[in-house]
Structures are given as C-alpha cells and as structure tokens.
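Folds abound. Consider this:
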Amino acid sequence: MAQVPQTFFDALAVRTWCGLALEALGRAREEIDAINVYPVADGDTGTNLYLTVESAVAAVEAVFAAHEVGSEESGKPTLADATRAMAHGALIGAQGNSGTILAQLLRGMAQVLAADGETPHTDGSGLRLALRHAADSARQAVAHPVEGTVLSVAAGAADAAGGAEGDCGAVARAAYDGARAALAATPGQLAVLGRAGVVDAGGRGLVAVLAALVETFTGEAPVAVVVSSGYARVEGDTATVAHARVDSGTAAAGNAETVDDCASSPEAGGPAFEVIYLLEAEDAAVARLRERLDALGDSLVVVGGDGLWNVHVHVDDAGAAVEAGVEAGRPYRIRITHFGVGDVHTTGGERPPRERVQRAVVAVVPGEGLAGLYTEAGATTVLARPGEAPASGELVDAVRRAHAREVVLLPNDADLRHTAAAAAEQARAEGIRVALIPTRSAVQGIAALAVHEPERRFDEDVVSMTSAAGATRYAEVAVAERQSWTMAGICQAGDVLGLIEGDVAVIGSDVTVTAETVLDRMLQAGGELVTLVLGDEAPESVAARLEARVRESYLAVDTVVYRGGRQGALLLIGVE
C-alpha cells in the first residue's frame, strides 16, 4: 500500500522516514551482509545498519509517546525534538563502522533541520542543506576517508541534491538517484570491491535509507531502474545487488584508487579487534583521543558532540583503546569483537567457518560492573543504560555473537519480556535453539548463571537455571524522579523508594535505612544467601551496614556484594 506522502519536513516526516528506513534495511539486511568485504569481510554491515536505525526509531517513538501522555498544550513533538531524538538514538545505538558513519550522517542532517533561526529548514532548500552538511560532517568524522565507500555515496547524494529544484520530494529523489549512481561506481574506486565483484555494503545500505526518504515525501517507493549492468540495480525502495559478481579484470582495471595506508584492507591484513564504545568527554579531550587511537590502529571513526561521542576503531591492543577512552572521559557500552584468527582481515586468505559452541548464555545487564561479572562467568552480555532499554535487534545480534547452537536468554527485566520473546523467535527462525528464562532482575540472572552447566542436556540446564531464578526474590532501592501514587502511598520527587518484586513497599528519606527495611521484609520469609549489587551513586557505607545487619540478626545467612557501576538503581538486592 502506498505511503501517504509528507509535504514538508516536520516531526511526523522524521517518524515516517525512520520507520520506512528500518523496514527497508530489515528486508535488505541479509543481502547487505553478504556483500560486506570492506573494511572487514565480517558479514555484518546490514545487521549493524539495521540496529543503528532501530535505535533511532526507538528514540523518536519515545519522544512521540512522551507528548501523547502529556498535556493537551504539549501537542506533537517539534521538528527539532524529533530530529535530535533520531540523531541521539542513532548515536547511542550505532554498531560497526558503517553504523557509526550513518549515525553521523543523521546527526549532520539533524543539526540543520533542528537549527534555531528565522529561516525554517523544512522545505526542499532545507533538505538540500541538510544532506550537504551530513555528507561533509561524516567525512570529517573518519580519520582517513577512502573513496568507494559510504562516504562517496553520501557525497553523491548531496551533490545531486544540491542541483535539484522543488519540494522535499524532488530533492529526496535527486539525492536517491545521485546515491544510486555513486554506489554503482564504488567497485571502480576501491580495488577490493572490484575484485570481489560487489558494490560497497555501507553505501548500499545508505541507498535504502534514501529510498525511504523518497517514499516519505512522494508516497511511493522508487521504481525499478537498472543503474549498472555489472553491479547493482534498483528494485522497489532498495538498491538490490543483482548478479553482483563480475570479472575482476573489468571491474578494477586501471581506475581503482590505492587504499590509504591507515585504512583497513583485507588484502594487506589488519588489526585483530574492533573496539566500540560510547564516551562522555569534552571536545578537547576527544581531539587528543583521535590522535591516540589513530596511532593505535585504523578504521577510526569518532562521531557525536555536545559531550557524548561514539568511538569506533580497529586495533591489535583493545585494552589500550579502552584506556585511551578512560583518559579522555567516561567510556561505557564497551564492545570488543575479535575478528578471528585466520579470517580475511588478519591473513588475507579465505576465512574458515568458525565452529559453533554447543551452548551459551546471553544476558541483559544494567551496569558495567555486572557486565564484567557476567562475562567472567562466560555469558555474552548486552548492556542496558538507565532509561535506554535494548531493542530486540540488539538481543538478536548478541545471540549471533554468542555463536552457539543453543542459547539461554536472560532478559533480567520484566519490561523486556516482549522484546526478549521477539528476539528469541527471530533467533529460532535462524536455526538457533533458544530458551527464554523470564528473569526480572539481574540478581535472578546471577542465580541462574551460578547453576548453569553447559555439559548437561539443554532441557535439564534450562530447568535448573529457571528454578534458581524463580527461587530468588528480588528488590531494589531507587530515588523517585517525580511525584507518583504507589502501593505504599504517594511519593515525592527525591524520595527513596524500596521496591520488592517490582512494587513499591517502602518510601523513605535515607538510603541505608530504607535498604535495611527492605532487607528485613525480604528475610522474614527466610533465605540462605543475600546478594547486594551497588550502583555508583549508592552511599559507600550501605553495603557494610547491610552485611552487619545480616550477621547480627540472621544466623546462617551469607552475604555477597558486587559493584554494578552505573545501573540506574542505587542498590539491587537478591535473597535465595
């Protein structure tokens, strides 16, 4: 069914565009993954782009939801609200090299569309400016730009849009046509693409995103038009690679540019690790960080601003890359991926298929401290930042990264049950056996992980882990953000809340006193082990006070304390 077109850029247009782009990347994901040969032939560009846009969609939807539950005067979100949410969502959810660059492209567009001033940037002229600024800012974010990549496709889109006249639909169509032509030219610009007989995977994804922009403003997806007999053609709203394999001699004869020495090349070999993290830091510190990381490795992309950055680099020393981030500010959501011994990136040869392990555990955790604990126990983790729950695509990606035939999934949050169920269904459709244990707190996940035995039969292991999680009562101590009615009465902003099994049971003013009251109520029903997980903002004395109380008042009950990091709640409590 044709999409109802938008006539100018407003918040609804942003929402529509993001949704259509996600659908387009969802349809094209596997195809884009299949042609991913640069900068690393790890077959995940399509997935990374999808996850990046999925995070942008979630952020935009959250803005609309906030206005829907607000007062009538609040109305719908402004264009600035929606574009900033889109850019922020893409930034915090950016995955991989191409996803990080796409996040900067969206941020560049948002900086123009959301700009304050007398001249509104909602028409075709504004869209031209936005596309130009997006292409330029993305190129500036890459330490060593290489032609024949998504940067070339973005530039082609901006160049074509710059010469277009008319409304947003006409400009979007011109940008799409320019991107499509630039995509077809990528095998002649980058030798590795020509030898493989494919177009650039990241650029292919950008064409799909721009096709969604055309549909947003015209109501129709671009029609099928052949753009190159050798490499690609457009079908519907995406540039579909058709018969992409060509003779390497005709693809790269004479006109392929030499790849920058500091850019990854599968043929020349490259670093062993991909390191990605979000970073809270000042501009001056980030400038120094760029120099440090550039000396450590390649494929360096640093995007963002206003104190929040997404850092992506390929290095041999992953620890040094993280330490550089620590020196610059506060890195979090740290993800380190080993490209694999003997893969195309590290050896230049054919990559042998990596044997799947039999069983793995994938868990959502609320803080860096627990992420380390779960990882040490052998789990693949997904870090949930306070207020930013992971999307289903991020969970599916983690299941894939676990590279196992059987996966036990621990959502560790009651609000994630539907998201986790959707991720489990997607993974099952890919042939992975997945068991979802409905853990509602990270302390239940700890209990489940403690009895996990991968040598057991899958069903027996799942039953044992489920039983351990179910036998663990959970609570948390947090600070109220606003006035609200609760099961324990009306709380005010700033009150300390003690929640047991998800319901507010205690309202207090002191963290330690409230925590003691909560713990006493939980231990009235008995218990053998108390687990305490302290957040960064919890008072230093609370753990010692609670441990002392258990020793003095509850004989034969043990206590274990973990540091959870920045986890949202001041304190998590588990009683087994």
User: Anything to note?
Assistant: The mean pLDDT is 81. The first helix runs from residue 11 to 34.
